Amino acid sequence: MSRSSDDGDVADASTEPEAGVDRPAGSVAGVTRGVFGFPDRLWQALAERRPPGLPGPERFRSPLRGPWLTSVFGLVLLLSLPLVFLTGLLDWIAYSPALHQSIPSHVGLLHLPYFTWPTRPVWLFRLTEGLHVGLGLVLVPVVLAKLWSVMPKLFAWPAARSAADLLERLSIICIVGGIVFEMVTGILNIQYDYLFGFNFYTAHYFGAWVFITGFAVHVSLKLPTMVRSLRSRPIREVLLTSRADTRAEPPDPDGLVSPDPAPATLSRRGALAVVGGGSLLVAVLTVGQTIGGVARDAALLVPRGRSYGNGPNDFQVNRTAEAASIQPAATGSTWQLSLSGGPTTVALSRLQLLDMDQHTAELPIACVEGWSSTQSWTGVRLADLARLAGVRSPVSAHVTSLERGGVFAEARLQGNQVLDPDALLALRVNGVDLSPDHGFPARIIIPAAPGVHCTKWVRTIEFAA
Amino acid sequence: MGDLYPRMRRAYGAHPLHLLTLVASFALVGYAISLLGVRSLWNHHVWWHSIIVWFLGAVLLHDLVLFPTYALADRSLGAGWRAVTNRAPTATRSVSPVNYLRLPAMASGLLLLMFFPGIIEQGRGTYARATGLTQAPYLQRWLLLTGAFFAVSAVAYGVRMVIAARRTDPGNSGRTAVDTPGTVEV
Question: Cβ(A283)–Cβ(A134) under 8 Å?
Answer without folding.
Answer: yes
